[in-house]
Design brief:
two-stranded antiparallel ribbon; mainly alpha; about 75% helix; about 300 residues; ABC transporter involved in vitamin B12 uptake, BtuC; disordered C terminus; globular
Length: about 300
Amino acid sequence: MLDLEILLQVLVLGLTNGALLALVALGYTLVYGIIELINFAHGDVYMIGTFTALTVVLGAGLSRSSPPLTLAAFLLLALALAMLVCAALNAVIERVAYRPLRHAPRLAPLITAIGVSFILMNVGLYWYGASQVRFPDILPNIDLLQALGLSTVVRFSTKDLFVLVVTVPLLLLLNLFIYRTRLGKAMRATAEDRDAAALVGIDINRTIALAFIIGGALAGAAGFLSGLYNNTAWFQQGFRAGLMAFTSAVLGGIGNPTGAVLGGLVIGVVAAITDFYLDPRWTQAVVFGILIVLLVFRPSGLLGEQVPEKV
């Protein structure tokens, strides 16, 4: 029984971190689904979201002893600002760095994305320096299962619940937006056939910019949640998170939002199991090994790719 409870604890950790990966992975898959661009700067946009939230938290002097209403108000402010800053940043990146290269050879925007990534890393380096910064541990860390008398071994804390309470509604709202709104239909039409979408009156530039804005907002939310959950911030945190999130998008089927969510959860669970039962140093090797094996037998990913290959 003890081994089963330990496994359940690992799964809780994996699903929570997987939910964060899913938010970041959606940014990759939304952009790739429309313009087939791998936005390597996306992980660093996520880092900027963490730094934005950290600035609000430190500026407000928040701690666990802060009045609940004050804490809630500033946390909402930090979340909103992180999403707004990252959405605006992604929109600027699309307009300045990617749009002029839309009809250039594919190598040009790819190199540009790497260059933007280095620029954002240096912004983070200037912002908080080269060392890891402690993100204040301000959320109550109560073991909800123990408090309810359900388990004394498996731990599901208020921090885990907070991540899921913020993440799940965002994922559901995105799904509703994509499949139930006019702008969402315009995004799907643009992903299906850009030229045909333009012929029926869809503003292609606005639709592509919208994909970047939504992806940036989700990355900002993930950065905010990561800071509160992991209590660290670092100017290079976007590299590993971006790599794992991109892997999640590919695993689930890049271009497919549902696949990105599934891929994030799978990668989160696999990483947690590898960290605990094997060795954290082997985690990335295991994750990419599973990805390679999957792509050999199913190149389109777990849920396939909704966007046809453009020739």
